[in-house]
Amino acid sequence: MSSTDFMQAGKDNLRHIAVIGAGYVGLPTAAILSHRGHFVTIAERDGARLEMLRQGASPIAESGLDEMLQEGIRTGHLRAVATAAEAVSGAEFVFLCVETPQAADGSADLSFIIGATTEIAEYLTDGAIIVNKSTVPLGTVELVERVIGRSDISVVSNPEFLREGRAIADSLNPDRVVVGAQNRDIATRVANLVSVTGAPVVITDATTSELIKYASNAFLATKLTFINTMARLCDAVGANVSDLVLGIGHDKRIGFDFLQPGPGWGGSCLPKDTSALLAIAESVGFDIEIVRAAIVGNEDQMNWVVDKIRIATGGTLDGRCIGVLGLTFKANTGDRRDSPAISITNRLVAQGATVRAFDPTVRRDSADALDLSHLEVYDDPYEALAGTHGIALLTEWPEFRDLDFERIRQCVTTPSIVDARNLLAAGPLRELGFSYTGIGRK
Ligand code: UGA
């Protein structure tokens, strides 16, 4: 962008923005800011992904993202470049959206944050504001300020709360916007840029903002372990967890969200962020027992599901063949990172079972490259389930409801289903001759 364009953009309240990192946070952020009319440059180091972006194609599957990227490329409001240094040239705001993977001790690994900030430091426009959207330990705003080492540059925390599979919808309609900075005027400038009509804005200091992100994910994880534990209790006492959710969820203080029991929670965020929060607390001599219990309870949940599959398969997994439906950590995403479905299939294989699996996002010819070589992956669900001694439904893909279970009944060796997502209707399956086991319900 030329400096004339940049001045024009500033005049119209449209900004020149850089986004570093084209992943699950960076891409939706760039797409939405360009959709709002800003001039956005996104940095992507991987050559193949960069080329896709330049064609307006998203390297990740998110509903509505391709359309927004295409719009941005077509109108010239979005462009993709290979280096962070190039992206930040002329940018008034720089969004850091790089990975913060889990380090060996459970804490967040900041090497990508430090790498990116070191790379951009000398190329930043005078007075630029760095907005950190990556999930980072407390004190990272100050760390980035130190790495940049320039008094004209401000650093702000603006945690992201979008869910995978709903990134665009969540970003267009957030429950709240959180901005944290030592300088309130700078925080307000960022809030004005990122806020959305109708969404409450919380402006706070940087440390509180960074902690809000971990507290949110830890609360959600704890809520899930709670309802999963209730499902186990329902099973033990013969109660029905679906009715229990209705009975407690109508209480507005509890609400219905995040009360769907399942095989355990996973994904790239909840497991990593709960461990990171424990590490943060430990560093100040504090143990958050409730979050520790939520993590332990999540392991218990996965083992409990494995037990259910073993019992449904006749008491042993050794030498049995299990048909697995779903491998992603939840439906509507191609992401299998820390997927409960993968953890459970690993445990089935460790107990001597063979696993034949189907997932709408995994193709057979790519299974080995995707580190799924311990499973037999099929492109067709009926082929995957043929000859199996039991079926385990582990991800709640809605299309599993539409499978022809009469046909499946004909091709399995033993008609048994463990529905770890309570997705299917038990009655019709039992009428077809299946033994049906749900989670916390008959
Ligand atoms: C999560 C948070 O929900 C987002 O707010 C946050 O921005 C994001 O992490 C992040 O930190 O980047 P996400 O990882 O996309 O989002 O996944 P969720 O939709 O939260 O699901 C997490 C796990 O909980 C999945 O395994 C899912 O199947 C499970 N889950 C969720 C249930 O078992 N039951 C529910 O009712 C909801």
Description of the structure:
It is a single chain. By secondary structure, this protein is of the alpha/beta class. Helices cover 42% and strands 13% of the residues. It contains 17 helices and 14 strands. Strand 7, helix 9 (184-194) and strand 8 form a beta-alpha-beta unit. Helix 10 packs parallel to helix 13 and helix 13 crosses helix 14. It is globular and about 70 Å long. Uridine-5'-diphosphate-glucuronic acid binds at residues 135, 160-164, 217, 220, 224, 258-260, 262, 265-267, 269-270, 273, 329-330, 340.
What is the fold's blueprint, element by element?
Blueprint: H1 3-11, E1 16-20, H2 26-35, E2 39-43, H3 47-54, H4 65-75, E3 78-81, H5 84-88, E4 93-96, H6 111-120, E5 129-132, H7 140-148, E6 154-157, H8 167-172, E7 177-180, H9 184-194, E8 201-204, H10 206-237, H11 241-249, H12 270-283, H13 289-312, E9 321-325, H14 340-350, E10 354-358, E11 376-377, H15 381-385, E12 390-393, H16 405-411, E13 416-419, H17 426-431, E14 435-437
Parallel strand pairs: 1-2, 1-4, 2-3, 4-5, 5-6, 7-8, 9-10, 9-12, 10-11, 12-13, 13-14
Helix pairs in contact: 2-4, 10-12, 10-13, 13-14
